[in-house]
Amino acid sequence: MIFKKLLIPLVIICSSAASGFAQDAQKGQQIAQRAEAAGNGYGDFAVQGDMTLRTAGGATSKRRFAAKNLELNGGRATRYMMVFDWPGDIRGTALLTHSFDTKQDSQWLYLPAASRVKKISGSGRSGSFVGSEFSYEDMVEQDASSYRHVWLRDEACPNGAGTCHLLQRTPVYKSGYSQQAVWIDTNALRYQLIQYYNRQGQLNKTLTMKNYKKYKGRFWRPSQMTMVNHLTGKSTTLNWKNYQFNIGLQPNQLTREAMTRAQ
C-alpha cells in the first residue's frame, strides 16, 4: 500500500528532526553553562554605577548607586544588593537578590520613605525597577539552570564583536517573557545582546552590553548596559565603574535586615 510505503520515510524524517533539536538543545545548554562558569569564582566584589533614564522624546534623568555581590556554595548561589545614594528622593532605596541554581531567585525592595521591605514575587517581577526599562526579573543573575537553551547558529555578533553563538532561551520559572534571543561571543563567552519577547510574542526590549573590561586577569565585566523598550521608545543605561574584588563580604551584610541600614 502507498500508505505503508510513505510511513517509514515520515518516521525517519520526524526522528531525525527530533534528534537534531535534542542535539541543538544540548549544545545550547552547554554553551550557557560554559558562559556561566567563565564568570564564576570571583568570590565577592563591590562596584559603583549610575543609571540614565531616557524618555521617548529624549529627556534624561540620572541616578547613582553602589552594589555588592557575594558568591556562596561554590558559585551555586549568590547574594546581590544595589543601593541608590543620589538623588535625594531615591537615596537609601535598595534591591536585594538571592539567586540559586536549583530554584527561583528571591528579591526584596526597601523603600526608606515607608521604612518597609517589600518582597518581589509573582507578576511583580515583570514590573519596572525604580521607573527604569529594567524589570526586577532583569536584575537577577543569568543562571544557565533558569532557562532552557537551544543553539540556533553561529553568526556575526550584532555589535561587531566578532562571532557569536545565537541561542534561544525559554524561562524555566514564571516570567514576563515568553522567549529570549541571546548572543554570546565565541571568543570569551561574554553576553553581547539579549532580545526579550513578551507573553504575546512581541519583541519588547533589547539589552546591549559593551565596553568589556577584564578584572583579576580573568573576569570580564561590561562597563555599559543599555536596555531599549521597543514598545514605548524609552531606554535606560547602566554604567559600571570602580570594581573591587575580594573585599571580604559576609552573608549577613546582604540580608533584608542589612538593607535598612545600607544608606
Structure in words:
16% of the residues lie in helices and 47% in strands. The chain is built from 2 helices and 13 strands. The protein has a 13-stranded antiparallel sheet with strand order 6-5-4-3-2-1-13-12-11-10-9-8-7, covered by helices on one side. The longest helix is centred in the first third of the chain and has 38 residues, at 2-39. With 263 residues, it is of the alpha+beta class. It starts with a helix and ends with a helix. The protein has a single domain (37-259), classed as outer membrane lipoprotein receptor (LolB), chain A (Clam), CATH 2.50.20.
What's a quick, concise take on this entry?
The chain has 263 residues and is of the alpha+beta class. It has one domain (37-259): Lipoprotein localisation LolA/LolB/LppX (outer membrane lipoprotein receptor (LolB), chain A), CATH 2.50.20.10. Helix content is 16%, strand content 47%.
Number of DSSP strand runs: 13
Name the quaternary structure: single chain
What's the helix-strand series? HEEEEEEEEEEEEEH
Q: CATH homologous superfamily, by name?
A: Lipoprotein localisation LolA/LolB/LppX
Q: What is the count of distinct domains?
A: 1
CATH architecture: Clam
**Spatial order of the strands forming the largest sheet:** 6-5-4-3-2-1-13-12-11-10-9-8-7
Number of helical segments?
2
Helical proportion, percent range: 10-25%
Radius of gyration: 21 Å
Shape: globular
- What proportion of the residues form beta strands (DSSP E)? over 45%
CATH fold name, please?
outer membrane lipoprotein receptor (LolB), chain A
Q: Tell me the span between the first and last alpha carbons.
A: 79 Å
Q: How would you classify the helix and strand content by structural class? A: alpha+beta
CATH class value: Mainly Beta
InterPro entries: TP_0789-like
Keywords: Plasmid, Signal
